[in-house]
Amino acid sequence: MSSVNLMAREVAAKIVFYGPGLSGKTTTLRKIYETVRPAHRGEMMSIATEGDRTLFFDFLPVKVERVGDCSVRLALYTVPGQVFYNATRKLVLQGADGVVFVADSQPEAMDANRESLANLEENLFEHGIRLDRFPLVMQWNKRDLEGVLPVDVLRKELNPRGVPEFETAAANGRGVLDTLKAITRLVIKDLRAKRIVPPPRPTTPGAGPQPAGLEAQLTQHLHGRQPPPPGSQQPTVTFGGGPAPALATAPVPRVAPVAVVPPPVQVSPVSATQTGPKLLGAASALASGDMFDHARAAEAAFMAGDYATCVTACTDAIRRALAFAGEGSLAQQAYLLRVDGADLLRFQGLATQQLLRVDDAAFALYVLMQVFVRLNAVGLPNGE
Ligand SMILES: Nc1nc2c(ncn2[C@@H]2O[C@H](COP(=O)(O)OP(=O)(O)O)[C@@H](O)[C@H]2O)c(=O)[nH]1
Ligand SMILES: [Mg+2]
């Protein structure tokens, strides 16, 4: 999904936090959200079930200005770890420029770690990508817990290729920004090698202040917020007071997404000051004007399991939203707003599909959110 605006020398890259359920992906993204300066990140969107499990994905945009002489916009995503959400994982993985594999360091999670890594390899392969050539960073998470596996065991099992690895405790934020910096460096290097990102401009001596390098910029922009002093921290995230729930180590049957009856969904933009999850959907939270009602209808239908109605409501909302881009076909409007063309095509294909599944509806909501985000980015609709 990387895109480059050569005039603005702006690079957009997509980074996916992958790993088994409960390994700490959502917590990692929340910590990044809390740490990065507000000016350098957008709102974090989470689509979670009532039990706080990621149903579709979490999404957090982060901006790093002037890496060399480019700006970098990062779109950070997590995937749902549960085995039966594989279609969703594939979808989120589509167009990824790099992956952070978040492993749970506890011995009882090793089977789930291995299974998830194999699943990553398989899903990337289906997108025509080989994991062993792909920008990848390993995040050994939950290092704060007692009895975790030694790092060399994790390395031997999960990182034979020797990609950069970091010990983290996402629950208290330790190591998460170092992980993010490492994957950003790898992604930029990879995009430069593929000549997607132009090499740094040659600089002339005495030409004024040099743009800072990647490392300095990442550090400056990402570490903008001091961690709150001890005692004033957000309620510590625990496993409900008890020991960490053991991950399912028994083989879990691969259930086709169509058979999944999704639990009630809470979609909520997460904010640092928020006390409880808002029952406002991620799409409607981004909507303005009469698009709000359509977005609400789409979310309500999704929650009720009525996927056909959800897709129809998304179609209505997307048409209205794209109309703000001016006259023309949907494709032209989408192009002008820089909505992903492949996504739009796939979305339009849903209209002719007989059976709509939970992933189709989730995808429709995803495209709708993308359109709203793009509209917001260009300041439309204005004057309301
Ligand atoms: N002790 C500890 N708990 C963690 C850590 N990271 C996440 N958790 C907890 O593990 C559980 C699952 O985390 P979550 O981020 O939802 O996992 P996800 O399924 O990968 O998104 C939550 O209860 C978190 O509070 C960590 O580094 N240390
Ligand atoms: Mg999650």
What do you see in this structure?
With 384 residues, the protein is α/β, with parallel strands linked by helices. It is built from 12 helices and 9 strands. The protein is globular and about 55 Å long. 43% of the residues are buried. Mean pLDDT is 75; it is low at 206-212 and 225-279. Residues 19, 21-27, 54, 78, 81, 141-142, 144-145, 169-171, 237, 239 line the site of guanosine-5'-diphosphate (GDP). The site of guanosine-5'-diphosphate (GDP) has 20 residues, from helix 1.
Short account of what is shown:
This protein is of the alpha/beta class.
The number of distinct β-strands equals 9
State the distance separating the first and last CA atoms.
Answer: 32 Å
CATH superfamily of the largest domain: P-loop containing nucleotide triphosphate hydrolases
Give the fraction of residues assigned to helices: 25-40%
- What ligands can be seen in this structure? guanosine-5'-diphosphate, magnesium ion
Note the main sheet. Answer: 9 strands, mixed
Mean pLDDT: 75
Structural class: alpha/beta
Rg over CA atoms: 21 Å
Protein name: GTP-binding protein
Organism: Pyxidicoccus fallax
Region (Disordered): 194-213, 221-245
Biased composition (Low complexity): 204-213
